Amino acid sequence: MARVNNSGVYTVSSSDRNLIGSFLTSAALKHFHLDWFSIFDILDEQPFLLLSEGENPLAIIACPPDPPQVAWIRLFAVGEERQEEEQWQALWEPARVSAIQLGASCATALSTRDWFSRLLQASSFKLANEVLFLEWSNSDPQVDLHQANELGIRMMQKDDLADVVAIDNAAFNPIWSLSLRSLIAAHSLASLATVLEVDGQIVGYQISTASALGAHLARLAVLPDQQGQGYGRALIQHVLRVHSRRGLGRVSVNTQADNLSSQRLYHSLGFQETGQRYPLYQDNF
Hints:
The chain is 29% helix and 34% strand. With 285 residues, the protein is an alpha+beta fold. The radius of gyration is 20 Å and the shape is elongated.
């Protein structure tokens, strides 16, 4: 580790893997970002900082920009409760400075814990949005999966990813867009990844994952100038049909609270809100 300043803050690298793993195992409070990467995949990326007192690690933060202009807080953990505010303050400022130096124009955090929300609210972060969760069940007769239009839908190939990232970046603002690196990771972890072609051009795509609990529609995007023609609906219906045939009777999805058109589409296909919502906080640099 290399010292960042005179207050016990150090940069982390892959050589610290065992130290980080041990600390996370025993940490009292942990925030993890819902991501395509594990924490150990980004050990050599900055900002990834450790607060230490002598040989005793106290807290850790990781927020490397990806996409380049957005520093998502992918990890914040503290060893002991009731120390989180002081240790957040010790780590966030050098992490913020590092992210700015790397070209980030903002930091974002999707909070799943009240204690983490309080830390963000007490610093320079502002509530910017919410992410809400919806779920579909094949016991709902509202959607006839046999009528799904699959014309132009095919399996996504690695060679498609350059087109897919262009669609993704056009469809989402920078906070929500994925880098090529993230899409490569998402594709490798997918249970079902498909594209929709029109006249030989890819105009939309989806990436889904699966577990024993059901499937999750992790990513869906259609080119802005091709939206409103039923392509998103066709991709979703294909996801529901395939996973239902595989014996997965539930499919979940999440979307932004201010994305009303997305919500209307999911509701029209039988998705229901679960009541689970996570606040999104943002700090503009």
